[in-house]
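One such shown below:

_____
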Amino acid sequence: MNQQLYARRFFVTGRVQGVGYRGFVEHVAGKLGLQGYVRNRRDGRVEVFAMGSPERLGQLRVALERGPMMSDVAKLNEEPDVVDTRYAGIFTIEMTI
C-alpha cells in the first residue's frame, strides 16, 4: 500500500517560541506518522513542513492551532508545498533560520 504523499507548510504566529512548541510538534507529527521538520524563525514564528495524507495533515493543523499548554497561537497560515525526499521517513527539529 503505497499512499501518495502531500506536503504542506505552516507558519505559526503568537507565543510559540520558548514554550516547548517545537517538541510538541515533533511529538504530534511522530504519532501521526508524518515526515518533515519544525523550526523557529528569527521573526518569532514557527515554521512546520509536513508530508503525509490529507487526513493526517488536517489532524496536524488542529494540533498546531491548539499548541502545547504554555503557547498562545494567534495565527496559522497554511500553504501547499512539494514533497521533499530529504525528509522521507523522518520528522526532525531543525536549526532556526
User: Anything to note?
Assistant: The chain has one domain: 6-79.
